[in-house]
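Inverse folding, one chain.
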């Protein structure tokens, strides 16, 4: 049974033919961890292609203006005593989560740089373009028991674009988010403010506002198995003290977590939280995650650095632990599944991959709104222009 019936390539469908218009959806993909154990697949050392920033108004800038500098409290001093609830809610400008940004900021970067991508001509046409956060969800899927996901996929000029769709359940939970959870989200950003300075030499300024519109995003190139990847992820800060100032190895991810007291609490932390931290930082090659542990009153009194490449050690001998090979093999299998499912090259056509814990990944097919996500400005610019804006115009 070959579920992918349609040829790749342009197929003009001007007249609505409900029966034949959409390709037949493919089979499904199982997610059981046992199916994906085996050797760790090839994963190219991620390299940074560029970066961009989003400002306090969520406006795009093709530079590093929003990059912050790691500035922890002195290690010889009294240790931290960060009040993570300070400034809530009066000095909090949360991003408007109703705005569906999809891949837009990344596409903005790609449009600007498509003519000067490394990897040679045609590299992009073979690649998968997405957010790091979407890949993180794929990596953790074999172990996830709570939250499902939906990924919309479109092929355009060969490239496969993957953009997350908020599930109805996730939307309902977001709209009904309990006040305490809202405050916890703030506390995570407040921790960043205590740990980061705006300039390399200076100190953090916790008196200012926390504005979650602001973001610095790194754009990375990698490859998983046979799948070339171009993805972008938000980076918390760079460490100006680090021996290698070269991105992404100078980057630091900041996290907060509940203070732990019993061995059982630590075990659960290793099994669940470290998996998410590992997946998120391993993908872009961010070498260290610095955790601030908060007490029930919301104060951080201790910090601990977790090297990304050592996180697996905490669960290596745990029967109920996670395995990086399973995560990466599943992700590779999903990308192969998506590549073979999305055959037609058409920016208006969407294969929607859906997953709920306990089940397999399933597929449905859609055209145009509400699932199509490649914006007209992107499609038109990519269609009309030659894929290179050479700074020195070549002779006609
Ligand atoms: P993460 O790994 O989940 O933090 O996500 P990425 O680093 O891949 O973020 C990609 C883009 O999505 C950045 O512009 C982020 O500012 C933005 N972003 C991060 N978290 C969220 C979220 O919860 N919802 C939405 N809509 N965007 C987010
Ligand atoms: Mg963080």
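Residues assigned per position:
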């Amino acid at each position: 049974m070959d579920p992918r019936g349609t040829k790749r390539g342009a197929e003009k469908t001007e007249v609505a033919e409900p029966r034949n218009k959409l390709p037949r959806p493919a089979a499904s993909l199982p997610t059981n961890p046992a199916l994906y154990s085996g050797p760790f697949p090839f994963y190219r050392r991620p390299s940074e292609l560029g970066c961009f920033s989003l400002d306090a108004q969520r406006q795009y800038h093709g530079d590093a203006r929003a990059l912050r500098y790691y500035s922890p409290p002195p290690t010889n001093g009294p240790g931290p005593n960060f009040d993570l609830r300070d400034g809530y809610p009066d000095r909090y400008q949360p991003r408007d989560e109703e705005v569906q940004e999809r891949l837009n900021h990344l596409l903005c970067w790609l449009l600007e740089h498509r003519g000067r991508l490394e990897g040679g001509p045609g590299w992009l046409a073979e690649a998968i373009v997405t957010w790091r956060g979407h890949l993180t969800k794929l990596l953790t899927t074999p172990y996830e028991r709570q939250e499902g996901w939906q990924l919309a996929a479109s092929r355009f000029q060969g490239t496969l674009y993957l953009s997350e769709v908020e599930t109805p359940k996730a939307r309902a939970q977001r709209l009904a988010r309990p006040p305490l959870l809202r405050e916890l989200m703030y506390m995570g950003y407040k921790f960043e403010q205590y740990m980061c300075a705006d300039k390399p030499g200076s100190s953090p300024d916790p008196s200012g506002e926390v504005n979650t519109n602001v973001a610095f995003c790194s754009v990375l190139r990698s490859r998983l198995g046979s799948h070339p990847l171009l993805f972008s992820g938000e980076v918390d800060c760079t460490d100006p003290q680090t021996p290698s100032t070269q991105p992404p190895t100078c980057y630091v991810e900041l996290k907060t977590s509940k203070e732990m007291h019993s061995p059982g609490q630590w075990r659960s932390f290793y099994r669940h939280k470290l998996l998410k931290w590992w997946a998120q930082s391993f993908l872009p090659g961010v070498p260290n995650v610095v955790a601030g542990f908060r007490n029930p009153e919301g104060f951080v009194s201790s910090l601990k650095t977790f090297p990304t490449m050592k996180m697996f050690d905490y669960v290596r001998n745990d029967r109920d632990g996670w395995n990086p090979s399973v995560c990466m093999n599943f992700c590779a299998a999903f990308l192969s599944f998506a590549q073979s499912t999305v055959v037609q090259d058409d920016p208006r056509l969407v294969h929607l991959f859906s997953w709920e814990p306990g089940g397999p990944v399933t597929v449905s097919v859609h055209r145009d709104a509400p699932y199509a996500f490649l914006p007209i400005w992107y499609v038109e610019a990519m269609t009309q222009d030659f894929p290179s804006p050479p700074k020195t115009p070549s002779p006609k």
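The longest strand covers residues 215-224. Confidence is low (pLDDT under 50) at residues 1-18, 388-396.
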